[in-house]
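User: I'm putting together notes for a lab meeting next week and I want to include a structural view of one of the chains we've been expressing. I don't have a solved structure, so I'd like a prediction I can at least talk through. The sequence is below, exactly as it appears in our construct file.
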Amino acid sequence: MKPLPTLRQLRHLVALADHGHFGRAAEACALTQSSLSASIRELESILGRTLVERTKRRVMVTPLGEQVVEKARALLADAESIVDMVDDGRAPLSGAFRLGVIPTIAPFLLPRTLPALRRAHPDLRLYLKEQTSAELVDSVRRGLLDAALLAFPYPLAGLDTHIFADDPFWVVFPRQHPFSKLERVPAAALRSEVLLLLEEGHCLRDQALAACGLAAASPAADPGADVKGSSLHTLVQMADNGLGLTLLPKMAIDAGIVRGTRLAVRPLDGPNATRRIGLAWRKGSPAARDALLLADFLGSELATPIPVARRAMHDTSRRK
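Assistant: Thanks for the context. Below is the predicted structure for the 320-residue chain, given as C-alpha cells.
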C-alpha cells in the first residue's frame, strides 16, 4: 500500500505556505520550529519530492508545492466537514464559527449586535477576522472562514449568500455648505463636488461611486484623487478639515462617527443610494445553517431602532 501523508503534515505545509516563515507557521500550529520543520521533511520524504526551498533568508514553496498546498486545503476542509457533519446534532449557533468582516462594517455593526448575540447564544464561540472583501471571499472559498459579512453589490460566483439589511448612504459635509439647507441630497449634485473616497481595494469605494452615478474609470469620479482615505474615520477627519465631501453608510452615522465634528449629514437621494448587508458562505458548507441563523439575528438587531439620544446626532447640524 502506498504511504500517504497525514492531515497533520498537510496542515503544517499549509501553515508554512500562509506565513512564509517557519517560526510564524510553527507558532500558528502551536509547535516548536524544529517540530514543524521535521513534519515538512517527513511529508517530502513520503511524496519523494521537494515542496519547500529553504535558504538562510527566506522560505519559498515550489510550484509543485503550491499544487500540493491547494489540494491540502481542500482535504483539510473536507475533514473539518466530516467533524461538523457528525456534530450536526448540536444546538444552533453553538461551538466555533469563523466569521470574516469588512472594515466598513466591523466597527459599526459588531459593537451594536454582539452583546445581544452573546446573551442569546452563550455557547457560540465567534472568531472574527477583519479584511477587505476580496481577501475574505478568498478565505471563505479556501475553507479558512465559515462565512463573511459583506456589503453588496459584490461579485460572489460559487458562494451562497443571504442579504439581511439595507444600509443607505448619507452625505457628510461642512455645516456651512449649501447642502445643509436640503432635506436630502440628490446624487447628481455630488458630481461637481470634491468627493473623498476610500483607497482602492475597498468595496465601499466602488459602491459610493455607483451611488453618485459615476464610473470608477471616469475622470470626474475622483476629483479628490490625491486625498484618499484608509478608513471611514480618516474620511471624516478630512471632511472636517474642509478637504471635501464624503459618503458614509447609515450604520456608521448611527454609531456616532461624526459626533464631535463640525460636519452635517443628510440622506443621499438616488437610485443606487444604498448598499446591502449580508453573509456569504461556501455552497454545501456544513456551516450554512448557522450562517443563515446568524444573518437573521444580525438583521433583526440592525432593524431595532437606536435610542433617541443616539438618533438625535443626525440633527446636530440643524441645532447649530
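A couple of points you could mention at the meeting. The first helix runs from residue 7 to 19. The mean pLDDT is 86.

User: Perfect, that's what I needed.
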